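Before a colleague's protein record goes any further, I have to sign it off. Thanks in advance; the entry in question is below:
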Amino acid sequence: MNRRNLAIIIVIALVAVAALIWSTTSGSSALTKYDNVLLSPSFASQLSVPNALLAQVGIGASGNFPGKLTKPLLTLNGKPEIIYIGSEYCPYCATERWPMIIALSRFGTFGNLHYMTSSPTDVAPSTPTFTFYNSTYQSSYITFIAREMQTNMLVNGTYPTLQVLNTTENNMIAKLDVGGGIPFINFANKSALSGATYSPLVLQNMNWSQIITQIYLTNSTISQSILGSANLLTAQICRATNNTPANVCMQSYIQKIEAFA
């Protein structure tokens, strides 16, 4: 058995142990008690999925491909700028953060990520996810800007505001996201995505540990959806970075996705 396969087996075993610990977490009320709880380093590390597993899935079951753009490269701090706009209540944003974090973790490092659930009264209530609010991201290749506009719990019939878009971001939304759908992701003006790449119903009746366990089982619907979408998003970032770093972007399956999606 080579070292790479051994490493994958060890990770899967650790995830299975975590699943036993989390197995009592079920139902909306039990899930929402984890809202705004900081991810443990061990759980966060599992979101850096080995390339061997990502390669097995390829494009998987992802859909709603981003639209290609023919605009000057959008940059911030001298690097291609990836902009995410969403809200904590949004079940489609909840769905999309999983592959986003996996894809972005191939180009840099997140810090201060917290557990979050989508609205308990919307479609796919209390979908397990994370929030980008107050998170950090460090990368040598890209700049990632995240805007979580509203919270996940209604107060007097509305979701309280978390973050407000600046003038540039509002103008971008007006031009590129005509329907106003969220999540919206602009990949440095090389492509843009409005909406999720798979259905939030895929994650229903699951907790975070169960989802991460399924991610590592590459034949599962969750793995095909999340890892397939992560590869799709990776290809968009690679287009923006002119295929750097090579160890991520020059993988044959990423190049294949980049060529048609």
Notes: Residues 87 and 103 are 19 Å apart (CA to CA). The radius of gyration is 17 Å.
